[in-house]
Design brief:
Blueprint: H1 8-22, E1 32-39, E2 45-47, H2 48-56, E3 60-76, E4 79-92, E5 95-110, E6 113-123
Parallel strand pairs: 1-6
Antiparallel strand pairs: 1-2, 3-4, 4-5, 5-6
């Protein structure tokens, strides 16, 4: 995929999101908008407060998050739509899991910083 220099800041935010998730780092809230919406592959939808509470309680602990594909970038003014695939493993309620997910993420740029506004993940079955 042909990406430009101006996409670098956006990719940095995406890498930070994955890294913060993988490391259960509280700094994750720095890359989220207060009106963020997370749609999980199990149909579960979280707003900012739900996400923060569950994240801090370590309801889900991620061991590894690896981007395997970046298939689409669309931009409109200060909004970017990203489609990508990740391989993720971790623990949920003491059960280990490993899955491949297709993500649609909507990022909004404000004051030169990209923040996640919306994310939907769908499990890719083998």
């Amino acid at each position: 995929m042909n990406t430009s220099q101006k996409d670098e800041k956006l990719f940095e935010s995406i890498r930070l999101l994955d890294s913060y998730l993988q490391n259960n780092d509280e700094k994750i809230i720095d890359v989220l908008r207060p009106d963020v919406s997370f749609g999980h592959s199990n149909g579960w939808i979280q707003n900012f407060e739900d996400f923060k509470k569950d994240f801090l309680s370590k309801k889900v602990i991620y061991k590894e998050i690896q981007q395997t594909e970046l298939s689409e970038i669309k931009r409109y003014k200060k909004t970017a739509s990203i489609r990508r695939k990740i391989k993720v493993s971790g623990t949920y309620k003491n059960q280990d899991f490993e899955m491949k997910l297709a993500l649609l993420e909507i990022w909004i740029k404000k004051n030169a910083a990209w923040k996640l506004w919306s994310r939907q993940s769908v499990e890719i079955k083998p």
